[in-house]
Write a structure and sequence with these properties.
heterodimer, A: alpha/beta, Glutaredoxin, six-stranded mixed β-sheet, B: alpha+beta, two-stranded antiparallel ribbon, 5 helices, globular, Thioredoxin_domain (chain B), AhpC/TSA (chain B)
Chain lengths: ~180, ~200
């Protein structure tokens, strides 16, 4: 009895501690830090600028590849924190049929002043596109019915499956999620 | 042995308590038709503000917003305009900054005061000290709006979501979600769109 209770207590303690740590992490991952907005006029950009109708095909490709579609912005601190993981997983898996698309939700005033310098400084290898469609209430539910619009958020899909992740990733979590999709093919 | 079991059970209850108390950070908050809690939070003028202070109010527009989020900044002038339009109709705006200033220094109480002064806010701008109010409402981002109707049963949630359908430009707005909801509420009509979504800055707590 004594032992059983001890084991039970230990197990419960471990479960509860583990759970708390996880929640704390996920909470931290959702937090954002913002900076002042600089208003600079729009200039020529090397990133495609899509409205949702133009963007939607990137969520529906059926070419046998696995697509990681990450919604982010330069003003979203947890988005920037997970950016190296998307780059790393892309570098490791691009020969296995992985594509990573980084969908910037930066406002037009930030494209030249913040987005371009960030992408250049970090030398991002993943494809960067801009989704500029203010009718957010119409397109957010089309990406996932459960998405409330907070970023970071990510969709991973291939011809076999599709999952929405309304939170940030650690490298291990992203790698595990991506491997799950790649192993289907 | 018996005392050990009692101790064990107490420990279990304690652990269960910790387990349960760790969960509210993930609660989904209010839905349409729920009754919203009142609060007492410090305003930029130093006074404490509660919903109950507004004896003649027919409802309230509770807006979780802040100084630093680019989306919140885009909506500042529209929030001021909403206040001018609906305060005389007894639907005052109550703005609440849900961000923890320790983690987001740009949203400190002092910075809130200077922003309210610079923009001439005609409505209270409250600090959710300890970040206790926004989780009850279920706010996830700034700006995030809750329209409450004062009823004999309490303050009933009538609309949750965005102010309108175009954050970039007030001139390009096609659907004024919040205004439509308030007008319908005041006229006793059905509110057609009760929940909307928008990209926003995650609350930093």
């Amino acid at each position: 009895m004594k032992h059983l209770l001890g084991v039970l207590l230990l197990t419960l303690t471990l479960i509860s501690c583990g759970d708390r740590t996880k929640k704390k992490e996920s909470k931290v991952e959702r937090q954002s830090e913002f900076a002042e907005v600089n208003t600079i006029t729009k200039d020529s950009l090397k990133f495609p600028v899509y409205d949702f109708a133009e963007f939607e095909h990137l969520l529906k490709r059926e070419d046998g590849k696995t697509y990681v579609v990450n919604f982010w912005a330069t003003w979203c601190k947890p988005c920037l924190e997970e950016m190296p993981y998307f780059e790393q997983v892309y570098a490791e898996q691009k020969n296995n049929g992985l594509e990573v698309i980084l969908v910037s939700l930066d406002m037009p005033s930030m494209w030249k002043s913040r987005l371009k310098p960030y992408v250049e400084k970090k030398e991002l290898k993943s494809k960067v596109v801009i989704l500029d469609d203010p009718k957010q209430n119409e397109w957010i539910p089309k990406i996932d019915p459960d998405w409330d619009g907070a970023i970071p958020a990510t969709v991973i899909y291939n011809t076999n499956d599709r999952k929405f992740y309304g939170h940030g990733f650690t490298y291990d979590e992203l790698n595990e999620a991506v491997n799950g999709f790649l192993n289907m093919n | 042995m018996k005392t050990l079991c009692v101790f064990g059970v107490m420990m279990l209850l304690l652990i269960a308590g910790i387990f349960v108390s760790a969960s509210p950070s993930l609660v989904s908050g209010y839905d349409i038709g729920d009754y919203a809690t009142d609060f007492s939070l410090k305003n930029v003028d130093g006074n404490m503000v509660s919903l109950a202070d507004y004896k003649d109010a027919k409802g309230y527009l509770v807006i979780f917003t802040c100084n630093t989020c680019p989306y919140a900044v885009k909506y500042e002038d529209r929030i001021i305009a909403l206040d001018k339009k609906y305060k005389p109709l007894d639907v005052p705006i109550i703005a609440i900054n849900p961000n923890n200033p320790d983690l987001q220094p740009g949203d400190s109480f002092e910075k809130m005061k200077s922003r309210a002064k610079a923009k001439g806010f005609g409505f209270p701008y409250l600090l959710d000290e300890g970040q206790t109010v926004y989780p009850k409402y279920g706010a996830t981002r700034t700006p995030h709006v809750y329209l409450l109707e004062k009823t004999p049963m309490g303050n009933k949630v009538r609309y949750i979501g965005a102010i309108d359908d175009n954050y970039q430009s007030a001139a390009l707005v096609e659907e004024k979600f919040v205004e439509n909801a308030i007008d319908a509420m005041l006229e006793g009509r059905e509110i057609k769109v009760t929940k909307t979504r928008a990209i926003g800055c995650g609350i930093k707590a």
